Fold this sequence. Notes:
Elements: H1 10-26, E1 31-43, E2 69-77, E3 82-88, H2 93-107, E4 113-119, E5 136-140, H3 155-159, H4 170-186
Parallel strand pairs: 1-4, 4-5
Antiparallel strand pairs: 1-2, 2-3
Amino acid sequence: PRPSRCRRAGGFSQSLATAVAQVQRAHPRARVxxxxxxxHRVGLKPILRRVWARxxxxxxxxxxxxxxxxxxxxxxxxxxxxxxxxxxxxxxxAAFSAALANFAHDxxxxxxxxxxxxLDGAGWHSGNAVQVPAGLHLVPLPPYSPExxxxxxxxxxxxxxxxxxxxxxLAALDAVLGDRCVCLAEHP
Length: 188
């Protein structure tokens, strides 16, 4: 069997390594990869960041907060930095199941490639209604442990082109966000 790409350090890391080892034993001829995923809400409410300005010069920030949202589903393979992105209008069990199906298909999960996916304990990540595709194995993170979630580090990168900008519609936001996700996927 091939060695897993997950590191062994700490309690959850050891349980994740155990899950990877169990998948490897169950599928001895398959390559096993360890990924993580998370969702991030973005919308028409502006993301404000500090900017440099000349001393004494007033700064203007155009802000028209509106409360329309969409979600970025980010999947990352932490050791290589490979990412997979989806822009989804909502978070729920059906959307999550569709995102898993898309991810599994694009990554080639199946008999020859098994993917262990670490994710947080959001309500739509578990339950009988979640449809997990063949070749995908979900491993929940311990509660209240964002420091263990490598996908959390994606969000400042995703937000960068959105900061200090106002978007009139979700379609305009979606265009910028889509370009950013493509750029991040091309540059692991």
